[in-house]
Records
---
Amino acid sequence: MRAFQWYLEVSSSSGFKSRLVHLWFYIRIAMENNKEIIIVFASHADDETIGCGATIAKYANQGKKVITVIFSSGENSSPWLRKEYLTETRKEEVKKISVFLGSKQTIFFGLKDMHLTEEIENPRVKKAVINIIKHFKPTSIFTHSKYDPHKDHRAANKVVFDALYECDKKYKINVYVFEVWNVLNELKPRMYIDVSDTFGKKIQAMKKFKSQWLYVYLLIIPVIIRAVFSGFHAKCRFAERFYKIR
């Protein structure tokens, strides 16, 4: 959009300069269209950071376009705060943190927290997921593992894969799952991404979720330990592990 606005402002000039403007405009559009697109589907604001925040930052540094999709409003995440306050606070937090990590756009579904299992039964939810996938045409998708103990996380996995079975029948999109509360390893092919350069940024991002400080701080140590062990497998300092499902 910025390139298009800039094009409108200067394309009225004539001669050689005008031809250069036209050429640069089309180059910019071509570069934008050729960017690799990644979509991260997460149940709650903070899951995407905990599960793959360092990878998001790394992909953004590489020029890839990352889209974050949050299913739940997160209104039931604290017994001490009003639901309306939590909904707005968590939304604003993840907007800022997504920009901090390098995500280009954050999409909110606004579904009921702790009730995603029921919410995804509404066919409009799956349809919306399909529309997002068709619109952005991602090369890769990251989402929750179906073995995550949290029921909302399993619901997110289900609706994403139900959508993929309809809109990606030829398995063109690479699909990976990440871990949040997982205890057991999965018997699926593993992908380790060296995030030594961006892992510190992930920890900074986690600490920015002030409304979720208790849950986030409970997870920081396990996240660090997991990254160290994954780094050992990947022969680097820190790595994030994903399971390839499709």
---
Amino acid sequence: MEPEPRRAGGAGPPRRPRGPIPAILRRALGHAALATGLLLAAACATRIVPAPTADRLPGPGAAALAEAAGVRVIVAADAWRGFPADLADSVTPMLVTIHNGSERQLMIRYEHFALTSPEGRRFAALPPFEITGVVSEPVPGFHPPVRFGVAPYLSRWYPGWTVFGGPFPFHTAYYDAFYPAFTRVALPTGDMVQKALPEGVVEPGGRVAGFVYFEEVKDVEALTFAARLVEPSAATPFAEVRLPFVVD
């Protein structure tokens, strides 16, 4: 067999060995491809941030605030750090903090929240509690509330919390309509329930915070977070808080 010709100027770099790629190299290449895919997916994920016209807050979380009739609402669109980490691929979590500076009681119900687009699309808030199921264990409050009474039908999740003593009926139709959206994607997780904004009543001077999980946002470029402010004894809102967001 004739020797291979030498390259001009020296022996040159060694040739790559012929034959199958070693298993360890195949695994390394596979991991690199997976990491690249995850980075590309993250780059393509929907990102919601306050619009330029919003009253933005400094710091992480993409938060903004608005106030109406003495009630201040802070909404952070990029605050989820729980399990699952890719929750935004299934629903749209927003951290909502409500300070009731009015002289009225403020009723918190998921049906009072929504995300709407200029085209008229509506993304509803999803109830994270399975009222007819069995509670495996109570969940501690994500942010300790102040002067807040939890809805009576949620009291088993919050032992030791003040329970609202007035009328607060369970709205079966709303839960039946929107809770199944979670179960279709194997949600909610325990972390989601623990961090959720519970339904109940915020007394004057009170505060409550937690995540509101909206239907997955897609195919829109702008959104408005809307919260209707309703007293427990009233059928119509006394005010509404609206916050503009844009979708990258």
---
Amino acid sequence: MIIFAIVALVAGIILAVTLKKKYFIAIGAVVCVLAVAYTCVTTVPTGHTGVVTVFGRVADYTLDSGFHMKAPWEKIVLMDNRVQKRTENLACFSSDIQEVKMIYTVNYQISKKDAMTLYSTVGEAYYDTVITPNIAESVKVATAQYTAEDLVGKRDSLANDIETVLSEKLKSYNIDVVSTSIEDMDFTEAFTDAVEAKQVAAQNKLRAQTEAEQKIIEAQAAADVKKVNADAAAYEVLKKAEAEAEANTKLAASITDTLIDYLYAQGWDGKLPYIVSGKDGGLLINAADLIRPETSDGEAE
């Protein structure tokens, strides 16, 4: 812009001399002043830091967001202090040499106080110069600590390990890692097929174990039912026997000689038995004749 102002001033002088009209000099001077004035003002957008350079050398101060005056020879480089997001497509290997393709996202930020240092040591293209290679290195280092099979089930743990390694690497450049995430991981078709086959086998094994356990439970339940039924039957027999024993005990306690004689008498038909006597049993005596009283003529009645 300063060169343009000088050119405008020289052109005005030349036209004034050639055409002998002095107002061309005035016009050139006005254009020159406006051009210089334009180079003396600058604005820094919100969320940015203005790094001041003088002929390529970084000044020892920065500009905050807003409107500022500056010298025409000063250049303002804008450094973004907002949280920025970048996504990388990476390829790496697990500890068992399985290729892993990963889509990795990082959110990062530089502070205002470190913007000048970062620009002076790395430059405006600090993402490509510093962040990109460190992302790739951190992902490779962390992924190599896991087997491919572990990577499938320990994705969150891997993401934390990568973020830890990356944060340490970028800290030395005054770049803060706000957050990171593994958007996607992809393995070779051969490994994917092997994992699926293993999962199917595990599911079949689990199903077989479940069915076996179910059968054991059902058999145990059936055995428990039989035991309960057997216990109930035994209990019923026991109670019946106890009742009969108690009845017999009470009955035995109630039987006396008097009762026996009474019952015997109740069942007697009034006839006395015959008595067999004699050597050969040839004499038959009626017991009634033995107790029947004799008549006056000596015969029994």
